[in-house]
Design brief:
By secondary structure, the protein is an alpha+beta fold. The protein is built from 9 helices and 10 strands. The chain starts with 7 loop residues before the first helix and ends with a helix. Helix 1 runs antiparallel to helix 4. It has 2 domains: 69 residues, Arc Repressor Mutant, subunit A (Orthogonal Bundle); 164 residues, START domain (Alpha-D-Glucose-1,6-Bisphosphate, Chain A, domain 4, 2-Layer Sandwich). The chain is 44% helix and 28% strand.
Protein backbone atom coordinates (compact mmCIF):
# COMPACT_ATOMS: atom_id res chain seq x y z
CA UNK A 1 0.00 0.00 0.00
CA UNK A 2 1.32 3.47 -0.93
CA UNK A 3 2.80 5.33 2.00
CA UNK A 4 3.14 2.18 4.11
CA UNK A 5 6.22 2.02 6.30
CA UNK A 6 8.18 -1.22 6.35
CA UNK A 7 8.63 -2.93 9.67
CA UNK A 8 12.39 -3.15 10.30
CA UNK A 9 12.20 -6.94 10.17
CA UNK A 10 10.63 -6.86 6.68
CA UNK A 11 14.01 -5.92 5.19
CA UNK A 12 15.62 -8.89 6.92
CA UNK A 13 12.95 -11.33 5.70
CA UNK A 14 13.36 -10.07 2.12
CA UNK A 15 17.13 -10.43 2.33
CA UNK A 16 16.79 -14.01 3.56
CA UNK A 17 14.24 -14.94 0.89
CA UNK A 18 16.87 -15.43 -1.82
CA UNK A 19 18.80 -18.74 -1.88
CA UNK A 20 21.99 -17.09 -3.13
CA UNK A 21 21.99 -14.68 -0.22
CA UNK A 22 21.40 -17.55 2.19
CA UNK A 23 24.37 -19.33 0.61
CA UNK A 24 26.56 -16.28 1.19
CA UNK A 25 25.49 -16.18 4.85
CA UNK A 26 26.32 -19.88 5.16
CA UNK A 27 29.82 -19.17 3.83
CA UNK A 28 30.27 -16.38 6.39
CA UNK A 29 29.01 -18.52 9.25
CA UNK A 30 32.45 -20.15 9.50
CA UNK A 31 34.27 -16.81 9.65
CA UNK A 32 34.93 -13.59 7.72
CA UNK A 33 35.63 -13.91 3.99
CA UNK A 34 37.00 -11.57 1.36
CA UNK A 35 34.69 -10.57 -1.47
CA UNK A 36 36.89 -12.59 -3.81
CA UNK A 37 36.40 -15.70 -1.68
CA UNK A 38 32.63 -15.24 -1.77
CA UNK A 39 32.57 -14.66 -5.53
CA UNK A 40 34.55 -17.88 -6.03
CA UNK A 41 32.16 -19.82 -3.79
CA UNK A 42 29.05 -18.97 -5.86
CA UNK A 43 29.34 -20.93 -9.10
CA UNK A 44 27.84 -19.54 -12.27
CA UNK A 45 27.42 -15.97 -11.03
CA UNK A 46 29.43 -12.90 -11.97
CA UNK A 47 31.28 -10.73 -9.48
CA UNK A 48 28.71 -8.00 -10.14
CA UNK A 49 25.86 -10.38 -9.28
CA UNK A 50 27.49 -11.49 -6.02
CA UNK A 51 28.25 -7.86 -5.09
CA UNK A 52 24.59 -6.98 -5.69
CA UNK A 53 23.46 -9.74 -3.30
CA UNK A 54 26.07 -8.67 -0.74
CA UNK A 55 24.71 -5.12 -0.98
CA UNK A 56 21.25 -6.37 -0.03
CA UNK A 57 22.69 -8.25 2.96
CA UNK A 58 24.66 -5.18 4.06
CA UNK A 59 21.56 -2.96 3.75
CA UNK A 60 19.65 -5.45 5.92
CA UNK A 61 22.43 -5.36 8.53
CA UNK A 62 23.14 -9.08 8.12
CA UNK A 63 26.65 -8.49 6.80
CA UNK A 64 29.23 -5.88 7.76
CA UNK A 65 32.00 -5.04 5.28
CA UNK A 66 35.37 -3.58 6.22
CA UNK A 67 38.34 -2.71 4.03
CA UNK A 68 41.81 -3.80 5.04
CA UNK A 69 44.32 -2.65 2.47
CA UNK A 70 43.01 -3.63 -0.95
CA UNK A 71 40.73 -6.34 0.34
CA UNK A 72 37.16 -6.04 1.53
CA UNK A 73 36.38 -8.42 4.39
CA UNK A 74 32.78 -9.46 4.94
CA UNK A 75 31.52 -10.52 8.37
CA UNK A 76 28.26 -12.16 9.39
CA UNK A 77 26.33 -9.86 11.73
CA UNK A 78 23.98 -12.06 13.74
CA UNK A 79 22.29 -9.22 15.64
CA UNK A 80 19.36 -8.77 13.19
CA UNK A 81 18.73 -12.53 13.24
CA UNK A 82 18.52 -12.50 17.02
CA UNK A 83 16.14 -9.52 16.97
CA UNK A 84 13.84 -11.40 14.58
CA UNK A 85 14.12 -14.55 16.66
CA UNK A 86 13.36 -12.71 19.89
CA UNK A 87 10.28 -11.14 18.32
CA UNK A 88 8.79 -14.34 16.95
CA UNK A 89 9.84 -16.92 19.54
CA UNK A 90 8.80 -16.70 23.18
CA UNK A 91 11.34 -17.12 25.96
CA UNK A 92 9.73 -20.42 26.88
CA UNK A 93 10.03 -21.74 23.34
CA UNK A 94 13.55 -20.34 23.13
CA UNK A 95 14.64 -22.41 26.13
CA UNK A 96 13.16 -25.57 24.66
CA UNK A 97 14.77 -24.90 21.28
CA UNK A 98 18.17 -24.37 22.90
CA UNK A 99 17.76 -27.58 24.91
CA UNK A 100 16.81 -29.62 21.82
CA UNK A 101 19.69 -28.20 19.80
CA UNK A 102 22.14 -29.00 22.59
CA UNK A 103 20.73 -32.55 22.79
CA UNK A 104 21.10 -33.00 19.02
CA UNK A 105 24.65 -31.65 19.00
CA UNK A 106 25.61 -33.88 21.93
CA UNK A 107 24.15 -36.99 20.30
CA UNK A 108 25.70 -36.37 16.90
CA UNK A 109 29.00 -34.74 17.72
CA UNK A 110 30.19 -35.70 21.21
CA UNK A 111 33.13 -37.74 19.95
CA UNK A 112 34.12 -35.14 17.37
CA UNK A 113 34.07 -32.34 19.95
CA UNK A 114 36.15 -34.35 22.42
CA UNK A 115 38.76 -34.84 19.71
CA UNK A 116 38.80 -31.12 18.93
CA UNK A 117 39.33 -30.19 22.56
CA UNK A 118 42.09 -32.75 23.06
CA UNK A 119 43.87 -31.64 19.89
CA UNK A 120 43.43 -27.94 20.66
CA UNK A 121 46.09 -25.84 18.97
CA UNK A 122 46.78 -22.10 19.11
CA UNK A 123 44.52 -20.31 16.65
CA UNK A 124 42.91 -16.97 15.83
CA UNK A 125 39.29 -15.94 15.34
CA UNK A 126 37.29 -12.75 14.90
CA UNK A 127 33.71 -11.74 15.73
CA UNK A 128 32.18 -8.62 14.18
CA UNK A 129 28.73 -7.40 15.24
CA UNK A 130 26.80 -4.16 15.03
CA UNK A 131 23.45 -2.83 16.19
CA UNK A 132 21.51 0.40 15.68
CA UNK A 133 20.08 1.97 18.83
CA UNK A 134 17.59 4.82 18.86
CA UNK A 135 19.39 6.88 21.51
CA UNK A 136 22.12 9.58 21.63
CA UNK A 137 25.71 8.41 21.33
CA UNK A 138 26.86 10.12 24.54
CA UNK A 139 24.11 8.43 26.57
CA UNK A 140 24.95 4.97 25.24
CA UNK A 141 28.67 5.51 25.84
CA UNK A 142 27.97 6.55 29.44
CA UNK A 143 25.70 3.57 30.17
CA UNK A 144 28.22 1.19 28.58
CA UNK A 145 30.98 2.32 30.92
CA UNK A 146 29.08 3.28 34.06
CA UNK A 147 26.14 0.85 34.16
CA UNK A 148 27.17 -2.44 32.53
CA UNK A 149 25.25 -4.35 35.22
CA UNK A 150 22.04 -3.14 33.58
CA UNK A 151 22.71 -4.79 30.20
CA UNK A 152 25.64 -7.24 30.44
CA UNK A 153 24.35 -10.22 32.44
CA UNK A 154 23.29 -13.79 31.76
CA UNK A 155 20.00 -13.82 33.69
CA UNK A 156 18.17 -11.97 36.45
CA UNK A 157 19.78 -14.07 39.17
CA UNK A 158 23.34 -13.46 37.95
CA UNK A 159 22.64 -9.75 37.50
CA UNK A 160 22.10 -9.44 41.26
CA UNK A 161 24.53 -12.13 42.45
CA UNK A 162 27.54 -11.22 40.26
CA UNK A 163 26.98 -7.72 38.87
CA UNK A 164 29.29 -6.45 36.13
CA UNK A 165 31.39 -3.33 36.75
CA UNK A 166 33.78 -1.24 34.65
CA UNK A 167 36.31 1.25 35.99
CA UNK A 168 36.00 4.10 33.42
CA UNK A 169 39.68 4.96 33.03
CA UNK A 170 42.84 3.80 31.26
CA UNK A 171 43.85 0.48 32.78
CA UNK A 172 40.44 0.22 34.44
CA UNK A 173 39.12 -3.28 35.01
CA UNK A 174 35.98 -4.80 33.54
CA UNK A 175 35.03 -7.36 36.18
CA UNK A 176 32.38 -9.42 37.91
CA UNK A 177 31.69 -8.86 41.61
CA UNK A 178 31.61 -12.22 43.38
CA UNK A 179 29.31 -13.07 46.32
CA UNK A 180 32.25 -13.63 48.69
CA UNK A 181 33.57 -10.12 48.17
CA UNK A 182 36.10 -11.03 45.50
CA UNK A 183 36.03 -10.26 41.81
CA UNK A 184 36.82 -11.91 38.46
CA UNK A 185 38.45 -9.71 35.82
CA UNK A 186 37.10 -10.00 32.27
CA UNK A 187 39.48 -7.48 30.66
CA UNK A 188 41.23 -4.14 31.12
CA UNK A 189 40.76 -0.89 29.22
CA UNK A 190 43.66 -0.12 26.86
CA UNK A 191 42.09 2.82 25.00
CA UNK A 192 39.29 5.33 25.60
CA UNK A 193 38.08 7.93 23.12
CA UNK A 194 35.12 9.60 24.89
CA UNK A 195 31.81 9.01 23.14
CA UNK A 196 33.68 7.32 20.28
CA UNK A 197 35.60 4.14 21.06
CA UNK A 198 36.73 1.80 23.87
CA UNK A 199 39.26 -1.02 23.61
CA UNK A 200 39.60 -3.88 26.08
CA UNK A 201 42.22 -6.61 26.41
CA UNK A 202 41.97 -9.70 28.61
CA UNK A 203 41.34 -13.42 28.98
CA UNK A 204 37.56 -13.04 29.44
CA UNK A 205 37.84 -15.30 32.54
CA UNK A 206 38.90 -18.26 30.35
CA UNK A 207 41.26 -20.69 32.11
CA UNK A 208 43.01 -21.67 28.85
CA UNK A 209 45.98 -19.90 27.26
CA UNK A 210 43.77 -17.28 25.68
CA UNK A 211 43.73 -13.54 24.97
CA UNK A 212 41.12 -11.27 23.39
CA UNK A 213 41.23 -7.73 22.05
CA UNK A 214 37.77 -6.15 21.97
CA UNK A 215 37.03 -2.79 20.34
CA UNK A 216 33.65 -1.11 20.84
CA UNK A 217 32.86 1.81 18.52
CA UNK A 218 29.99 4.31 18.73
CA UNK A 219 28.92 6.17 15.58
CA UNK A 220 26.18 8.73 14.95
CA UNK A 221 23.56 7.62 12.44
CA UNK A 222 20.21 9.06 11.46
CA UNK A 223 17.87 8.59 14.40
CA UNK A 224 20.44 7.26 16.83
CA UNK A 225 23.74 5.44 17.21
CA UNK A 226 25.45 2.46 15.61
CA UNK A 227 27.37 0.32 18.12
CA UNK A 228 30.02 -1.95 16.58
CA UNK A 229 31.90 -4.82 18.23
CA UNK A 230 35.23 -6.09 16.88
CA UNK A 231 36.30 -9.07 19.03
CA UNK A 232 39.60 -10.71 18.05
CA UNK A 233 40.95 -13.66 19.98
CA UNK A 234 44.01 -15.87 19.89
CA UNK A 235 45.26 -18.89 21.83
CA UNK A 236 43.76 -22.25 22.70
CA UNK A 237 39.98 -22.40 22.27
CA UNK A 238 37.32 -24.47 20.55
CA UNK A 239 34.60 -23.47 18.11
CA UNK A 240 32.20 -23.50 21.06
CA UNK A 241 34.18 -20.68 22.68
CA UNK A 242 33.68 -18.56 19.55
CA UNK A 243 29.97 -19.35 19.50
CA UNK A 244 29.70 -18.56 23.19
CA UNK A 245 31.35 -15.16 22.83
CA UNK A 246 29.15 -14.31 19.87
CA UNK A 247 25.99 -15.31 21.73
CA UNK A 248 27.13 -13.33 24.78
CA UNK A 249 27.68 -10.18 22.75
CA UNK A 250 24.38 -10.68 20.93
CA UNK A 251 22.54 -10.97 24.22
CA UNK A 252 24.28 -7.94 25.71
CA UNK A 253 23.71 -5.74 22.66
CA UNK A 254 20.01 -6.56 22.45
CA UNK A 255 19.60 -5.88 26.18
CA UNK A 256 21.46 -2.57 25.75
CA UNK A 257 19.15 -1.63 22.88
CA UNK A 258 16.05 -2.46 24.94
CA UNK A 259 17.39 -0.51 27.92
CA UNK A 260 18.31 2.61 25.93
CA UNK A 261 15.12 2.70 23.86
CA UNK A 262 12.76 2.07 26.77
Amino acid sequence: MDGAVDNPTDVIWRALSDPTRRTLLDRLRTGPKTTGDLVASVHGMSRFGVMKHLGVLVDAGLVTARKEGRQRWNHLNAVPLKLVFDRWVSKYEDQWADALIRLKNTAEGEHEMSTKLLDSQPRNAQIALEIDINAPRADIFRVWLEEPHKWFYENEESRDATPTRIEPKMGGKWYLELPNGGFNVIAEITMIKPNNKIRFKGDCTCPEAFMANMTVAFEDIQGGTKVTIDHRMSGEFSDEHVTGFQEGWLDGLTKLKTLMEA
